[in-house]
Design brief:
Strand order of the largest sheet: 5-4-3-6-7-8-9
Bound molecules: S-adenosyl-L-homocysteine
Number of helices: 6
CATH superfamily of one domain: Vaccinia Virus protein VP39
Oligomer: single chain
Order of helices and strands: HHEEHEHEHEEHEEE
Radius of gyration: 16 Å
CATH architecture of one domain: 3-Layer(aba) Sandwich
CATH class of one domain: Alpha Beta
Helix content: 25-40%
Number of strands: 9
Structural class: alpha/beta
Largest sheet: 7 strands, mixed
Strand content: 25-35%
Length: 226
């Protein structure tokens, strides 16, 4: 990894990053905690050097293996949905499971906002690179696992929130079972290229459900690969 210029210059500078934050605010992201996290995490180190100059555009970009780094607007909207409105009796989620680490950008944004993040990725080489990037950023409250996220992370359950960054046709049972009471599950659900971004909240044995956006995620697959 060569583009570990954490501060950035020109198209990767702090000022360029702040323009992205302004754009997200204009697009309706209102949670200042989330906007601060987006302003803080250098997105350009999560993409190939050849694409670094486009890192602060509000678009998805390829990260290899047919996968993409999510569009910043979607990262912001999903993060806000995970945090909730801050009105919960417990003061918001502390222990969060992320399924689909990818390049680790969403992971890094989340890590600044909750106590602990557990992240699972099925492609070993993506996971290793994500781990190196978060390490370079000095982020220490994330645990990584190379596994099939359809199974969740049983040993660490229950979670206060779960975020899935790949499209599913139905919510995996194992993941449902690993949510604490009051926990939120944020995930893209649908058949085909476009999914509904949903937020499910566990209320005892019942689920409260909201649809937030139309989104376009790569599909959640089964098993693992190197
Ligand atoms: N938030 C990430 C999005 C990555 S795209 C980012 O901004 O980079 C979705 C990721 O989900 C891909 O890396 C893909 O390999 C991973 N994925 C797909 N199916 C999975 C599964 N069953 N378990 C874990 N990860 C999975």
């Amino acid at each position: 990894m060569s583009n570990l210029d954490l501060e950035g210059v020109g198209m990767t500078s702090r000022r360029t990053r702040n323009r992205l934050v302004t754009r997200l605010r204009d697009a309706g992201i209102a949670d200042e905690r989330v906007l601060d996290a987006i302003a803080t995490v250098p997105r350009h180190i999560f993409v190939d050097e050849a694409l670094a100059h486009r890192a602060y555009e509000d678009s998805a970009l390829p990260i290899g293996h047919g996968q993409t780094i999510s569009q910043p607007y979607i990262v912001a909207a999903m993060t806000a949905a995970v945090l909730g409105d801050g009105a919960q009796a417990n003061g918001g989620p502390r222990k969060v499971l992320e399924i689909g680490t990818g390049c680790g950008y969403q992971t890094a944004v989340l890590a600044g906002l909750v106590d602990r993040v557990f992240t699972v990725e099925r492609i070993g080489s993506l996971l290793d690179r994500a781990r190196q990037r978060l390490d370079a950023l000095g982020i220490r409250n994330v645990r990584f696992r190379h596994a099939d996220g359809n199974l969740g992370w049983r040993e660490q359950a229950p979670f206060d929130a779960v975020l899935v960054t790949a499209g599913v046709t139905h919510v995996p049972d194992a993941v449902m079972e690993q949510l604490a009471d009051g926990a939120a599950l944020v995930l893209p659900v649908g058949h085909g290229d476009v999914q509904d971004l949903k937020r499910l909240e566990r209320v005892g044995d019942a689920w409260r459900q909201q649809t937030l956006e139309h989104v376009r995620f790569v599909p959640m697959l089964r098993g693992t690969q190197t």
